[in-house]
Specification:
mainly alpha, single chain
Length: 68
């Protein structure tokens, strides 16, 4: 597995983790936790969006390198 492929897998896993944390924080907020959980959910979604943008920039920058 090339460094490019590993990087994409790692970025994808990080995005999924951030979305999972956001979902967990929203469920905690619905169960009666404080508004800080809603803040953490918002920050997690923002980080996931930033990681998606980073992944797209990474793919454009290294489009000439193969995945193998």
């Amino acid at each position: 597995m090339s460094l490019k492929a590993f990087h994409l897998v790692f970025v994808t896993a990080s995005v999924l983790l951030m979305l999972g944390v956001a979902g967990w924080c929203v469920s905690q907020y619905r169960d009666g936790a404080g508004t800080i959980q809603l803040v953490w959910a918002t920050l997690s979604v923002a980080c996931a969006a930033a990681l998606v943008v980073y992944g797209r920039i990474f793919l454009k920058k290294l489009k000439h390198i193969s995945y193998l």
